[in-house]
Amino acid sequence: MTTYIIRRLLLLPLIILGVTLIVFSMSQLLGPLKLLSTYVDPNTYAKMSERDIQILMEQYGLTDPLPIRYGKWLKSLFKGDLGWSVVGKEPVLSALINRFPYTFELALYALFPIIGVGIWLGVTAAVHHNSFIDQFIRIFALIGWSLPDFIWAILVLLIFYIGLGWFPPGNLSIWADQIVKSASFQNYTHLLTIDALLNGRIDIFWDALRHIIGPVIAISWLWWANLLRITRSSMLEVLRKDYVRTARSKGLPEKVVINKHARKNALIPVVTTAGQMVIGLLTGVVIVEMVFVRTGLGSFAATAAQQLDYASIMGVLLFTSLLLIIGNLIIDISYAIIDPRIRLG
Q: Which of the pair, 46 or 19, is modelled with greater confidence?
């Protein structure tokens, strides 16, 4: 196990370096002047003289040969200089740091219901193969998988906010947002619900929770549908294996056969789906965040793309790539934990 993890960790810097090379190559298509505009506040850039522009181009190495330019660009990355965000009106790194907690909190609340319910539904459908329960769950999955996420998100908003008035869009109500932004409120984690509890503000906690339940519902059905289909298929395959028949022939209770012998082996392909789901949640659920007006990473990336904010787009690309690399590393290690054959191979 240790050797397997070390091999994966040794590959990590090479993969990250490859990602930076790809992003750098894409950025060079913009041209020197457009690249310079990604490092400077647009208001300042508009007032700059040709001499000032030339000085900044030399400072950022935009007139150097490509290898030297790449080295300077990497150096600026290590310093946290990702350029200026037009959308966020602040440095790109600050914009990413300020918006990621909203996406992370949404992912945190969506993660456990999605994985728990999705796997439970998939196992239940497989165990009751071709019964009414199985057919009902499959229809549930088919509807969730067929419905576009933006339509489902709008339906959730129409039903639970406009119709029932339960789960409003946004991050917080106006009154709660004013308190959170005041000097009296301490932001320990930058996660609204957790910070509200740490500040002893149950009213703000409940308000933040009301605003996050709608997006969680919108995200969950799509992922439930995907996860339970994978789990059901894998579980049906495992239940036909010889060792499961042997366990049943020994007179073991069905609950033991399912939980101890079948489910763990059936989870191997599910790990990939669940892992990619977590990565997708963390990198920003764009449509859901846009529909529910949440100022997370997904809505930030979408707005940056609409306004051709190149610095923000490249910053989001680098950040999400890093999350993807780390997420895939965790998936590989999870494989080794679940299936010893992988690490032995």
A: 19
Candidates 279, 325, 278; CA nearest to 16 is: 325
Give pairs for 92-98: CB < 8 Å, separation 24+: 92/311, 92/312, 92/314, 92/315, 93/315, 95/300, 95/312, 95/315, 96/297, 96/300, 96/315, 96/316, 96/319, 98/190
Give the amino acid at 224: W
* Numbers of helices and strands, H then E, in the chain: 18, 2
DSSP per residue, 67-112:
HHHHHHHHHHHHTT---EETTTTEEHHHHHHHHHHHHHHHHHHHHH
pLDDT in tens, 281-307: 776 677 888 888 888 888 888 888 888
Tokens 């208001």 sit on residue: 43
Average pLDDT over residues 233-237: 80
Q: Is the pLDDT of residue 205 over 90?
A: yes
Structure tokens, 237: 């395959």
Q: How far apart are CA 255 and CA 323, in angstroms?
A: 38
**Angle, helices 263-282/202-239, rounded to nearest 10 degrees:** 140
Contact yes or no for 274/55 (Cβ under 8 A): no
3-state secondary structure of 279: helix
Q: What is the DSSP string of 239-275?
A: HTSHHHHHHHHTT--HHHIIIIIIHHHHHHHHHHHHH
User: Shortest CA distance to 316 belongs to which of 10, 38, 13, 37?
Assistant: 38
User: Pseudo-torsion of CA 210, 214, 217, 220, nearest 10°?
Assistant: -100
- Do 337 and 268 touch, CB atoms closer than 8 A? no
